[in-house]
Recover the amino acids of this structure.
């Protein structure tokens, strides 16, 4: 293999087993995961790869859609065929991590699966309007940074350290020339 290619990454993952995804990181991991079709059976090591903190939100969404979740979205859990239950379970895990905020948006990352995501969110809105709900509902507030690149929350304003009041400080303050002590939390008159 002379260079990274989506088909080469897919073949390497299937042949080398669970360790192939564990050895990759960063962009190589994202490319390998996005190029892998795991809709019929989850790859060995896919769960561990998806549990890594260096995986970004856009890649996690692409992996979610590579698992073809639309097949099981309106199907009750007991009705999922036995051979496809590991796939549905992996989709459950990925969706839970997306909605909990486990995957963070990467600065300047490009969303490669924009069309399936837009279609999924459109169906989700239609379901909400009709009063029904699918198995996997993506939290649109968590996905907002992917749609608006200028979206950024300002960090909270720092709070000045509040001085801890204690009985020892109140007793010893007059001896050491510290400022006037407070008696039981009230200013002294």
């Amino acid at each position: 293999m002379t260079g990274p290619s989506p088909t080469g990454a897919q073949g390497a993952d299937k042949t080398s087993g669970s360790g192939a995804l564990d050895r990759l990181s960063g962009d190589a991991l994202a490319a390998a995961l996005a190029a892998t079709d795991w809709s019929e059976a989850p790859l060995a090591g896919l769960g561990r790869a998806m549990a890594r903190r260096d995986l970004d939100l856009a890649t996690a969404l692409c992996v979610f859609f590579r698992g073809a979740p639309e097949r099981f979205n309106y199907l009750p859990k007991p009705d999922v065929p036995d051979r496809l239950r590991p796939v549905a379970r992996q989709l459950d895990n990925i969706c839970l991590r997306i909605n909990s905020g486990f995957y963070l948006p990467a600065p300047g990352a490009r969303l490669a699966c924009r069309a399936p995501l837009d279609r999924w969110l459109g169906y989700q809105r239609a379901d909400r309007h009709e009063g029904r709900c699918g198995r996997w509902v993506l939290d649109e507030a968590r996905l907002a940074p992917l749609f608006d690149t200028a979206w950024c929350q300002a960090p909270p304003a720092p709070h000045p350290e509040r001085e801890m009041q204690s009985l020892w400080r109140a007793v010893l303050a007059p001896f050491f020339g510290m400022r006037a002590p407070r008696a039981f939390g009230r200013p002294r008159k």
